[in-house]
Amino acid sequence: MPTTFHTIAIEGLNIFYREAGSKDKPTIVLLHGYPASSHMYRDLINQLSDQFHLVAPDFPGFGNSDTPSIDQFEYSFDRLADITENFLKALGLTRFSFYLQDYGAPVGFRVATRHPDWIQALILQNANAYEEGLTSAWQALRDLWRDRTEATETAAREFFKRDTTIFFYTSGTRDRQNINPDNWNLDQSFLDRPNNAAAQLELIYDYRKNLESYPEWHAYFRTHQPPTLVVWGKNDPFFGPEGAKAFARDLNIIETHLLDTGHFALDEEGEAIAHQIRRFLPAHIA
């Protein structure tokens, strides 16, 4: 079924989202990572739209959603979760599966802990919730978290540069020629917008609070036991495979598939991931 494109006002912000599939089908809400947007799900949405209803928003500061300045909006994962929660309420989505990747994980896990009854299942693609999943590539950000100075901010700003955006997409892939350069060209055009570097720096600094929230998320997993499908690019330079395996400590109904690719696993393993979703969700959701 065709994908349609929408904008809705949430707390005074224009939030863009993609939607496909019949609303009579089971819903999957797809939350994107950094430095991407709902664009990262374009092919998966097409692959699944005959069997599922799919909704993929862009967070504030990303993609086609508004990018207010940091004095107009608090760029924190709590606030991204607030916007996402209100977005879901506005669309009447209170029973769905979450597909979470990268930044989508701390946003989605916050929503899930607030509304465990909303969640039918989790699909986790390089969506970290355990310390052992964070690789040495996080050192510059840990330095920022420990002591926010001009020097540590300058080091963190390397994450906003074109070469780093390309690295996100190509590191750990089987073949760089499999990756469409439109990905990083589009993402970089959004990163380069006015206000965006300051917004992204606030989010990177706020990421430290996600680590503090890990115990709360683990308690949610143990208490509510959402059926969980892990489809993880095992060569991701930022979120290592130990982070994928760690979910099995707290979840009973779980499958973990380590895929031979990088951070954006959909680019090389999209068909395989779509197949796993088609198989897993009908077996585990009412």
UniProtKB/TrEMBL annotation:
Organism: Drouetiella hepatica Uher 2000/2452
PANTHER family hit by this protein: AB HYDROLASE-1 DOMAIN-CONTAINING PROTEIN, HYDROLASE-RELATED
Pfam family name, one: Abhydrolase_1
Presence of keyword Hydrolase: yes
Protein name as annotated: Alpha/beta hydrolase
Keywords: Hydrolase
Domain named AB hydrolase-1: residues: 26-269
Gene Ontology molecular-function annotations: epoxide hydrolase activity
